[in-house]
Specification:
Layout (H helix, E strand, L loop, with lengths): L6 E5 L3 E3 L7 E2 L3 E5 L2 E6 L11 E4 L4 E4 L1 E6 L6 E2 L4 E2 L1 H6 L3 E6 L12 H17 L6 E3 L11 H9 L16 H13 L5 E2 L14 H7 L3 E2 L11 H10 L3 E5 L4 H13 L6 E4 L12 H12 L4 H7 L2 H7 L14 E5 L9 H6 L5 E7 L2 E4 L13 E2 L1
Helix pairs in contact: 4-5, 5-6, 6-7, 8-9
The structure holds zinc ion (ZN).
The site of zinc ion has 6 residues, from loops.
Length: 390
């Protein structure tokens, strides 16, 4: 191995969560990543830990894939005009999140709604977050809001320019099923993923999208199925779960009762693998640095889901739904991790029990592409044990 190839060794891991629902806990205490990719997972005694450029003693804490927020509204850098707030992304990193997925850069003051303007903004947003990661955070952005008048060539132009996502269908002028379906199909043809606003209007200027429109449009992700904030009636939520196989995205800035209804319906259908989590921040509700951890704890405790499975909603499920190279502990995947432990004085003998009682874990470290991006969280309750860089 060349001298300058970064080799990360994380040893003394007390519990390793895979992000994969079918085998959520791995039998391993050590992990090696070379050049930002996972190369070995196993027991330290069987592994070649020599020549590490960075060694971390996990000190018995829990390693999980870095959490993914499937629904954010970034605008530029680490600033949100929505609440005039700086450093919300850095704060979110301290909540264990290592990847953010934009559902549209809708809070840009003066957001262009003409077609060339909206394309230009999407391409620029994709570039500025690719070129600059606030505090190391991976931000998948550049998610145009579709408007009436767009033609197939516009979607090809966006895809050719590197745009990979559509913002929430329904936040622009397209709120009807037939137009939405036509444009989502064009986006899919050119390799772009799509999501749709579900439920009542979120803020003045947005509108109602009901189950019939969601099903007709057929976007890849049913964005905030529990409303953002206003949820659809129960029968429509159940209908969405039963009538399609799309991603069921539950958000922090939504209706918590509707979140539990979605979870219970997905469980009855034996389709918990469709459940993915977002915050839908920044928004009228503010920013939620701990939003994803709060969703994991809420769904685990009130929804009776084993904590290791609830963590999959925020990691492996989203990874698979959105075809990412992060969110799963597997050889070849990105070395994006969160190290956590039971919060000090939280009830429960283990971190998993403490989450099942509805408590947040304490974050001790985040790592992105094999590089330490934060140490003890300034936002979570303090962890009982902390990892250290040796
Ligand atoms: Zn929305």
């Amino acid at each position: 191995m060349p001298q300058d190839t970064p080799k990360l060794v994380i040893r003394n891991i007390g519990l390793m969560l895979s992000g994969k629902m079918e085998a959520a806990i791995l039998d391993a205490d050590c992990l090696i990543a070379i050049d930002g990719k996972i190369t070995e997972i196993g027991m330290e005694k069987d592994m070649d830990t020599e020549g590490a450029t960075t060694t971390i003693d996990a000190n018995g804490t829990t390693l999980a894939p870095g959490l993914i927020d499937s629904h954010v509204h970034p605008v530029i850098g680490d600033y949100t005009p929505r609440q005039n707030q700086m450093n919300w992304i850095d704060s979110t990193l301290h909540g264990g999140v290592t990847t953010l997925i934009s559902a549209g850069e809708v809070h840009m003051p003066g957001r262009p709604k003409d077609i060339i303007g909206l394309k230009a903004q999407a391409i620029a947003a994709q570039r500025w977050y690719e070129n600059f990661r606030p505090s190391g955070m991976k931000v998948m952005a550049g998610a145009p809001i579709i408007e009436h008048g767009m033609v197939e060539q516009d979607f090809k132009d966006l895809a050719d320019a590197g745009v990979k996502l559509l913002g929430e269908v329904g936040l622009g002028s397209v709120k009807d099923g037939p137009t939405g379906k036509k444009m989502v199909d064009w986006a899919r043809k050119y390799g772009m993923q799509s999501t749709i606003h579900t439920g009542g209007p979120s803020i003045p200027g947005s509108g109602l999208i009901d189950a019939e429109v969601v099903l007709e449009v057929g976007a890849d992700v049913i964005g905030h199925i529990n409303g953002g904030h206003t949820a659809l009636p129960d029968d429509q939520i159940i209908c969405l779960c039963e009538s399609c196989t799309k991603g069921l995205e539950i958000v922090h800035n939504g209706n918590e009762r509707a979140a539990l209804l979605t979870l219970n319906t997905a469980r009855e259908l034996k389709q918990l693998n469709r459940v993915i989590l977002g915050t839908d921040g920044p928004a009228g509700s503010g920013v939620q640095p701990l939003g994803i951890l709060r969703m994991v704890a809420m769904l685990s405790s009130l929804g009776n889901v084993p904590a290791e499975i609830a963590f999959c909603f925020a990691t492996g499920n989203t990874s698979r739904q959105r075809e990412l190279d992060t969110g799963i502990i597997e050889i070849g995947k990105a070395a994006d991790f969160v190290l956590m432990d039971r919060a000090q004085h939280a009830p429960g003998k283990t971190i998993l029990e403490s989450v099942e009682f509805g408590n947040l874990p304490g974050v001790g470290m985040t790592i992105i592409d094999g590089v330490v991006t934060s140490e003890r969280s300034r936002n979570t309750p303090p962890a009982t044990a902390l990892p250290t860089v040796i």
